[in-house]
Amino acid sequence: MERGAVFAGLHSNHLLSPLSSRASASTLSPSPLADGRHFCPPLLKLPSQSHFASYSNKQHFSSSIHVASPTSNATSESADIDWDNLGFGFMPTDYMYVMKCSQGENFSEGQLLRFGNIELNPSAGILNYGQGLFEGLKAYRKHDRNILLFRPEENAMRLRMGAERMCMPSPTVEQFVEAVRETVLANEKWIPPPGKGSMYIRPLLMGSGAVLGLAPAPEYTFLIYVSPVGNYFKEGLAPINLVVETEMHRATPGGTGGVKTIGNYAAEGAFCVRRSKKWLLIHCESAEYGDSCSSFRSVRIAEISLGPSARLWLVLKAQSAAKAKGYSDVLYLDSVHKRFLEEVSSCNVFVVKGNVISTPAIKGTILPGITRKSIIDVARSQGFQVEERMVPVEELLDADEVFCTGTAVVISPVGSITYIGKRVSYGSSGVGLVSQQLYSALTRLQMGLTEDTMDWILELK
């Protein structure tokens, strides 16, 4: 759930220097056929109960890694930040990690570079055809100053799954986790003190090579940058108010709704035009919510510098209309029956009734959230019956609680949902007991305040 992280422009002028690629052929990358066309591997078949295979830190990595930061004094100094007033937004740090790979090869050596702007050919695959993926995870600081990563291998496996779907080579799980580790330690001074927030980690995989015709890019860049962020809820959990969208849909069967591709977050949204060194953010202005877009207006003019994090925030048309009417976000239904719950704009949804917690099953149109997967396991360990199935929208009307899950918020309780004009509220405060219980359990685990019986935490010393 990323709704609070609006990225500001960058001011650094460092450019991304090319890296050499020294590796053999990759089975994940698309390869040219004899007639010049390109072969794209089929989508991975996912098991019904788990969206990736299980992965153990103890089997593949030491639970505690001792390493020196590239900045010699990183462990003794802290960034000059008012941690008590740190918001959930982008803040430039010191280093970013970059690794390149040519089509038909494997990712090999990467390196840390000073954080700054990157150069892309105007014909880059990411710019012309949206061939790109991103991930999001967090690092936390403990009171003993050790650093905790929460399930980074899950993000690595999800990126690999998305890369196969998008005809892209991808780093191995080990390469991904090592790159995250190096980036976090290089920027250690930017990690907030315990209880003040976390370090948000953003890996990107993009087609950076120039391609004019519709085909996979000839070169790919894997990049990681980080930013300190405050706690999403400063004063404890705060409920959100959702509206069910009945006409527009975030994903369709056979599409890319089940992978974290960049294009999923720009569909049916705003667009930007440049005018005299300034960018105008344009969005649809319709007479009624759900109408087709008949007119547009500019809503903001801002000078920006296209840095690695300056992905223009393209707010979904439905989300913009909902917020204009006072709702926090949109809950989407499936595109076939227009009856079963799918996702909120950028997070998974759960419905609570008694001791049963229900959530839409992963079936290709729903992103397999890592927080979602973790909440399911935590809930089952606490005695709840968790059902992953098709959830009819009518069940919202009789639910005890509803909550959403995502990296940024962990859990976001839902105070009310409006469906075809009917508003249903949950509890007097909007924060149910189950939501609070699961939020506390998972966040305490993420911050190292309880024992990690799940083998989910990778600790850096």
Automatic annotation (TrEMBL):
- SUPFAM superfamilies in the record, alphabetically? D-aminoacid aminotransferase-like PLP-dependent enzymes (SSF56752)
Biological process (GO), any one: branched-chain amino acid biosynthetic process
> Could you tell me which Pfam families the record lists for this protein?
Aminotran_4
Keyword Transferase assigned: yes
List keywords of the entry alphabetically.
Amino-acid biosynthesis, Aminotransferase, Branched-chain amino acid biosynthesis, Pyridoxal phosphate, Transferase
What Gene3D superfamilies does the database record attribute to this sequence? 3.30.470.10, D-amino Acid Aminotransferase, subunit A, domain 2
> What is the enzyme's main class?
transferase
- On the tree of life, the source organism's domain of life is Eukaryota
- Which EC numbers does the record give? 2.6.1.42
**Which co-factor is required?**
pyridoxal 5'-phosphate
Give start-end ranges for the coiled-coil region(s): none
User: Which GO molecular function entries does the Swiss-Prot or TrEMBL record give?
Assistant: branched-chain-amino-acid transaminase activity
Its family remark reads: Belongs to the class-IV pyridoxal-phosphate-dependent aminotransferase family.
The protein's name in its UniProt record: Branched-chain-amino-acid aminotransferase
